[in-house]
Structure formats: structure tokens, C-alpha cells
């Protein structure tokens, strides 16, 4: 299930996801990872224009998130990626955003891919919340969600991206 269907399902998930993400982000920031293979939970990176395809990745335990994009115009922008996991490691989150809120680059393509988990919820935004401003979501027709990716939809995407949020469910080992 990539996104809930029906109004009540969307409203319930819309209320639950921000709370879950805040808990995951707070936990990741407060507790350094004890997994020797885990990367820091939040990392800064430059989104570079010029039309070339670039990627940035972070891992946490057995899960990883990779952001691949191509952008035009302007100069490098500072972005951040945060990866986190729930206490029981059942949920994995990946957030990619521009802290200043709005990107001035024109994205010709984007894709965020998770490995080691299946996407339960994802959303893309043309503007990230900053100060008193709220997140501005992309229209559903502008991007698509599969079990492991969130990507632009060719011919529908309007070249604006400032934030991606993914919550994925990790596989459970049955005893």
C-alpha cells in the first residue's frame, strides 16, 4: 500500500505520519546509533545544478535511502537527508529537504529509493515548511510511488521540489 485511499484513510494517515516522523527524527537526533555500520542520522549535502545526474545516500542498519536527481539553474543549494527507525526497527523513515524551504533550482528529474523496506507512505513537496509557512505538496499527478521508490512523473512534474518524505516498513523475521 503506497498511499491510503478514501478521505478518512488520508485524514487518519495525515495525522499519524507527522507524529511518527517527529518521533523518529527526535529519537535519531537524541540517540547515536549503536550499529557499527550505521551512518549519522542527518547529513547535509549539496544539490548541484548543471543537468548531470547526481545521487546521495544514507544507510541505517539494513535499510538505506538514495536520492537521485538532475537540476538546472542557479548555484549549489544546501539540502539535508535524515534517516531514522522506530524503536522496534519496524519502520524506516527517510526525509530529504532544503532547510530554507523553497528550492530555486529546476529539477528535471528526481527519485528517492529505499532498500531493505517497502514504502507505506510517501509525499513530495514543492515547498518545505519554514517559519510560519506550511509544506506545499506536489499534485498527485506530478509524482509516482512504487513499493521502493518515489519519483517524478514524466510530462506531469512541474520542475519544483523542496522536500520528500518516506515512511517504509521493514521486513519482519518470523521465528
Automatic annotation (TrEMBL):
InterPro entries attached to this UniProt entry: MYDGF (IPR018887)
Give UniProt keywords alphabetically: Signal
One GO biological process from the UniProt record?
Answer: positive regulation of angiogenesis
Q: Which organism is it from?
A: Panurus biarmicus
Question: Which positions make up the signal peptide?
Answer: 1-30
Q: Name one Pfam family in it.
A: UPF0556
Q: What is this protein called?
A: MYDGF factor
Q: Which GO terms describe its cellular component?
A: extracellular space
Amino acid at each position: 500500500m503506497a498511499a491510503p485511499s478514501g478521505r478518512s484513510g488520508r485524514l487518519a494517515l495525515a495525522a499519524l505520519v507527522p507524529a511518527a516522523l517527529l518521533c523518529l527524527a527526535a529519537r535519531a537526533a537524541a540517540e547515536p546509533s549503536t550499529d557499527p555500520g550505521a551512518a549519522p542520522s542527518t547529513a547535509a549535502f549539496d544539490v548541484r545544478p548543471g543537468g548531470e545526474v547526481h545521487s546521495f545516500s544514507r544507510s541505517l542498519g539494513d535499510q538505506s535511502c538514495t536520492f537521485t536527481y538532475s537540476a538546472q539553474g542557479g548555484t549549489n543549494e544546501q539540502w539535508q537527508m535524515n534517516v531514522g527507525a522506530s524503536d522496534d526497527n519496524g519502520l524506516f523513515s527517510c526525509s530529504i529537504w532544503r532547510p530554507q524551504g523553497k528550492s530555486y533550482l529546476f529539477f528535471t528529474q528526481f527519485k528517492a529509493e529505499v532498500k531493505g523496506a517497502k514504502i507505506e507512505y510517501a509525499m513530495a513537496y514543492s515547498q518545505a515548511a519554514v517559519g510560519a509557512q506550511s509544506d506545499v505538496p506536489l499534485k498527485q499527478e506530478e509524482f509516482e510511488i512504487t513499493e521502493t521508490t518515489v519519483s517524478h512523473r514524466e510530462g506531469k512534474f512541474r520542475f519544483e521540489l523542496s522536500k520528500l518524505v518516506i515512511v517504509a516498513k521493514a521486513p519482519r523475521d518470523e521465528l
